[in-house]
Amino acid sequence: MTTRVYKHKRPPAVFTFATTTRGRDRFGTWLSMPQGARWEAPHAAGVMPNDAILLLRPGQWWVGWWIDDPADRRVVIDICVPPIEQGDGWSYLDLELDVVRHQDGTVEVEDRDEFQTACADGWITPEEAVMALDTSTHMERVLATADEPFGEVGWRRLRETTV
After folding, report:
1. Measured distance CA(156)–CA(11) in Å, rounded
2. What does the domain layout of the chain look like in residue ranges?
3. Where would I find the beta strands (DSSP E) of 58-154?
4. Could you tell me the pTM of the whole model?
5. Cα–Cα distance, 79 to 64 (Å, whole number)
6. Topology of the domain comprising 2-162
7. Dihedral angle at the C-alpha atoms of 115, 4, 152, 66, nearest 10 degrees?
8. Which of 4, 34, 122, 135 has the smallest number of CB atoms closer than 10 Å to its CB?
9. Between the CA of residue 67 and those of 86, 89, 139, what are the distances in Å?
């Protein structure tokens, strides 16, 4: 059964991903997006070029993505308003910042310019901005030290969905 993920951005735009629920554990809800899974955006649509798995956890200001890209296998943390489970899936409001651990172990925060623009234009509230910055700083440390589930747990979950 398809579980939809709705990634909202301001000004209003919705990105939709077709996923499959793969289970729940103490870390949250795991959703798989195999190579070929459909996605839609306001400006385009397509299919996933690589296998991926997502982790969503209510109350957390992030959504985790493990992306099995042969050119750069990576963990991407979308900094966001906490995800909400809804009728046919999950929904979250993206706050632009992405914390990434690349295959070589490098950790960086991407899209700072988009975050600053969104804040300046009033698309991200001051309260959301504080939480986004605090969460991105925290997640940089988590990814740098590979704290679980951002060490082997996520990659194991991804492997289990592709077997």
Report:
1. 36
2. 2-162
3. 62-67, 74-86, 89-101, 107-110
4. 0.94
5. 9
6. FomD barrel-like fold (2.40.380)
7. -50
8. 122
9. 24, 20, 17
